[in-house]
From TrEMBL:
PANTHER family referenced in this protein's UniProt entry, alphabetically: PROLINE SYNTHETASE CO-TRANSCRIBED BACTERIAL HOMOLOG PROTEIN (PTHR10146), PYRIDOXAL PHOSPHATE HOMEOSTASIS PROTEIN (PTHR10146:SF14)
PROSITE patterns: UPF0001
Organism lineage string: Bacteria, Bacillati, Actinomycetota, Actinomycetes, Kitasatosporales
Signal sequence region: none
Source organism of the structure: Streptomyces polyrhachis
Membership in a protein family: Belongs to the pyridoxal phosphate-binding protein YggS/PROSC family.
Function: Pyridoxal 5'-phosphate (PLP)-binding protein, which is involved in PLP homeostasis.
Residues modified as N6-(pyridoxal phosphate)lysine: 49
HAMAP family reported for this sequence: PLP_homeostasis
Residues in Alanine racemase N-terminal domain copies: 20-254
UniProt protein name: Pyridoxal phosphate homeostasis protein
C-alpha cells in the first residue's frame, strides 16, 4: 500500500462512494424483488472510466470486484497500478484490432466484440498471453435486423459499434471456435436513435430474445450485460445478468469524450 498522503480526502471520497454504492445496491435489490428474481442473479459492474485508480482501490475496499473501462490506454494503466487487487476488468469500449494484445493482457471479459477481424485479433492475443479471454458480443439494436455482410450500426449511433441482430449467430460461432476465447453471452447499450430510442425496456427484452436464440446453440453463453445508471431497473426487469453502472456510483465523469 502507498502511504496515505491524503487521508482526510480519501476518507471523504470513501464515504461518498460507500453511500452511492449502497444506493445502487438497493436499486438492484428492489428491481430484483419486483421482477421475482434472486438478487444473486444480477452482478454489478462499476464503470470507472475517467475516474482515478485511487477510486477503484477504494471501491475494491468496499467489496467491488467487477470494474469496466472503455479505453485501452486508461484501462491498462489502472490495471497495472492496481495489480495487487483482486479485480475483474471488463472492456466495454469500441476496440481497434491493434489494441487487442494490450486488452488481452489484463481484461477478464471483452464485452464489445462486434466483428470477425476483432475475434481473430483477440484470439491471437489471448493465445500469445496464454490466457482464456471471456467475450460478449455487443449487439447494435439500432442496426437493421437483417443487415448484410459487413454492416455496422448507423454512424448516427455515435459510433458505438455492435453487431446487427441478424449476424449474432455467425459471430458467436466464430468466437466459440476460436482457441483462446470463451463465448459468454451478449451486451448492449440502449439505443439513442431508431426504433428503440427511449424504449429501454423493449430494447432489453429484444436483447433477451436474441440471447435465448444464442443459448439454443451455445447454452453456456448465458451472460446478458445491459443497463446503466439511468436504466438498470429496466434491464433487471427484462432479465439482464450484469448491469454496468458508472455515474450513479462515482458521480458525474470529470471529462466527457
Ligand atoms: C460509460 C458506460 C456505462 C456506464 O454509464 P453510466 O450512465 O455512467 O452509468 C455503461 N456501459 C458502457 C458501454 C459505457 O461506456
Amino acid at each position: 500500500m502507498n502511504a496515505p498522503v491524503n487521508a482526510p480526502a480519501d476518507d471523504r471520497r470513501r464515504a461518498e462512494l460507500a453511500a452511492n454504492l449502497a444506493a445502487v445496491e438497493r436499486r438492484i435489490d428492489v428491481a430484483c424483488a419486483a421482477a421475482g428474481r434472486p438478487r444473486e442473479d444480477v452482478t454489478l459492474i462499476v464503470v470507472t472510466k475517467t475516474h482515478p485508480a485511487g477510486d477503484v482501490r477504494l471501491l475494491n475496499g468496499l467489496g467491488v470486484r467487477h470494474v469496466a473501462e472503455n479505453r485501452d490506454q486508461e484501462a491498462a494503466a489502472k490495471a497495472a497500478e492496481l495489480a495487487d487487487l483482486d479485480l475483474d476488468w471488463h472492456f466495454v469500449g469500441q476496440l481497434q484490432t491493434n489494441k487487442a494484445r494490450s486488452v488481452a493482457s489484463y481484461a477478464a471479459e471483452v464485452q464489445s466484440v462486434d466483428r470477425p477481424r476483432l475475434v481473430e485479433a483477440l484470439a491471437a492475443a489471448a493465445r500469445r498471453e496464454g490466457r482464456e479471454l471471456g467475450c460478449l458480443l455487443q449487439v447494435a439494436l439500432d442496426a437493421p435486423e437483417n443487415a448484410g455482410e459487413g454492416a455496422r450500426a448507423p454512424e448516427g449511433a455515435a459510433g458505438r459499434g455492435g453487431v446487427p441482430p441478424g449476424r449474432v449467430g455467425e459471430l458467436a460461432d466464430a468466437v466459440a471456435a476460436a482457441e483462446g476465447l470463451r463465448l459468454d453471452g451478449l451486451m448492449t447499450v440502449a439505443p439513442l436513435a431508431g426504433h428503440y430510442a427511449g424504449r429501454q425496456r423493449a430494447a432489453f427484452e429484444r436483447l433477451m430474445e436474441i440471447s435465448s436464440g444464442l443459448r439454443a446453440t451455445h447454452p453456456a453463453a448465458n451472460m446478458v450485460s445491459a443497463g446503466m445508471s439511468s436504466d438498470l431497473e429496466e434491464a433487471v426487469a427484462a432479465g439482464a445478468t450484469h448491469v454496468r453502472v458508472g455515474t450513479a456510483v462515482l458521480g458525474v465523469r470529470p471529462k466527457l469524450r
